[in-house]
Amino acid sequence: MPTSKQASKRLRQAVKRTELNLRKKRHISYLLRQAKSHIEAKDKDKAREFVLLFQKAVDKAGKTFMHKNKVARMKSRLMARFNTLK
Question: Which of 47, 60, 61, 71 is most exposed, with the fewest beta carbons within 10 Å of its own?
């Protein structure tokens, strides 16, 4: 357990940030799954909607807790799948 006031505040902040980041990661993986399932179902309109939502969420995450190269790789792979619908 932290002994100083500063250390206990840092612990509270770390717990709060970790929870928020996990929530964002889950949301990103949900959007990715939805986009992939609509692509496989050949539902172009729904797939486009989820692809755009995924790109927006993952771009925001790339500025905070995800590595920018991972973000670029995820977007690239999803767009390659999406472009097979055309």
Answer: 60
> What's the pLDDT tens digit per position in 6-33?
999 999 999 999 999 999 999 999 999 9
Backbone φ and ψ for 62, nearest 5 degrees, come out as -65, -20
Q: Check residue 61 and give its pLDDT.
A: 96
Query: What's the distance, CA 23 to chain centroid?
Result: 9
Burial (Cβ within 10 Å: 0-12, 13-18, ≥19) of residue 15: exposed
Q: Give the chain's end-to-end CA distance (angstroms, integer).
A: 57
Domains identified in the chain and CATH numbers: 5-85 (1.20.58.110)
Output 71-78 pairs: Cβ under 8 A, ≥24 positions apart. Answer: 74/32, 78/32, 78/35, 78/36, 78/51, 78/54
Two tokens at 73? 């790789």
